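Whiteboard transcription, Tuesday session. T.W. wrote the structure tokens on the left side:
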């Protein structure tokens, strides 16, 4: 057996990542909040709520007992909703092994504080940056659970840490690349959700491929401007964690952000969309904090701003468009 690792959070992505790690040879235990879900995963090797018709690896076990899951884990992967991360970490801190590395699988910005997920991990777990990594990329859970070939990025301020995680998070159908740009990698995963909501909106309205391609391209420019303003590297956003993730999220009917946008484009209100969605669309909760962060650095984000207006009900979804900026003069591409 490979190293012992823990995955916290048995939703679609946490369960899928546990499968990735297990298929790569690690000894994996998955923490599920609900005992009945832990039992289904351990006994039936299924997670029928989140990954219908997927057989999980025989070696994968799950438990609702956090202490049992964390015991002896060299790496701990966390996949809980971003807005409830902080409250979940109090128990984790007490149970973390002395040299364990913690990996964020989450794509979000904390409301109110506007912190990235790795920043919340540093604060609550009192860890130095070299013991934290983040994983991101074009990662639609169900496709990976079906073992469709996929690449991802693992970033840490320590290249050794990123490499150690990437080696464990690699198997015949899933390959992890490494970088040291935690900021760019994390913001890529957050920002693409917002552009995907915009794509969903224009899809729901009935616009076609030209509009969508224009929004993806101009949206990527907004993602790069924003990330660079906060210390990320432009090339990270042109890679798997930015453009790669953006394309997957914008193209896929599996994407929750895309689905939420489509409902908005069809004329449903924000509250109706929230009620219709079974799982959270992280993009909807990140719009406000991202625009606050953009304002703080003077970064213009016309597409994200239009999404915010559609959410607020002040912009007709039909009027969302890639060329609508406040500046009437012709822009360079």
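and on the right, the sequence the group agreed on:
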């Amino acid at each position: 057996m490979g190293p012992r690792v823990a995955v916290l959070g048995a939703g679609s992505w946490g369960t899928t990542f546990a499968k990735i790690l297990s298929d790569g040879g690690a000894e994996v235990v998955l923490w599920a909040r609900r005992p009945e879900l832990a039992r289904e995963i351990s006994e039936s090797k299924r997670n029928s709520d989140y990954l219908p018709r997927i057989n999980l690896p025989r070696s994968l076990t799950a438990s609702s007992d956090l202490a049992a899951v964390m015991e002896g884990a060299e790496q701990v992967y966390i996949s809980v909703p971003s807005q409830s991360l902080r409250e979940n970490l109090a128990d984790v801190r007490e149970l973390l092994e002395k040299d364990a590395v913690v990996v964020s699988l989450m794509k979000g910005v904390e409301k109110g504080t506007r912190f990235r997920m790795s920043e919340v991990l540093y604060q609550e777990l009192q860890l130095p940056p070299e013991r934290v990594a983040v994983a991101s990329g074009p990662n639609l859970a169900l496709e990976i659970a079906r073992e469709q070939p996929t690449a991802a990025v693992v970033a840490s301020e320590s290249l050794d840490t990123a490499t150690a995680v990437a080696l464990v998070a690699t198997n015949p159908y899933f390959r992890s690349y490494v970088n040291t740009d935690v900021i760019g990698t994390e913001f890529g995963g957050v920002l693409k959700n917002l552009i995907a909501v915009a794509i969903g909106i224009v899809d729901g309205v009935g616009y076609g491929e030209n509009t969508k391609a224009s929004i993806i391209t101009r949206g990527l420019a907004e993602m790069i401007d924003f990330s660079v303003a906060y210390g990320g590297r432009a090339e990270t956003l042109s890679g798997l964690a930015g453009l790669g993730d953006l394309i997957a999220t914008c193209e896929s009917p599996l994407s929750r952000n895309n689905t939420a946008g489509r409902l908005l484009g069809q004329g449903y209100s924000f509250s109706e969309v929230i009620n219709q969605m079974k799982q959270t669309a992280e993009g909807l909760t990140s719009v406000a904090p991202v625009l606050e962060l953009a304002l703080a650095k003077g970064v213009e984000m016309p597409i994200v701003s239009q999404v915010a207006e559609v959410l607020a009900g002040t912009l007709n979804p039909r009027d969302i468009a890639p060329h609508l900026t406040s500046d009437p003069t012709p822009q360079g591409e």
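Someone added at the bottom: The longest strand covers residues 150-155.
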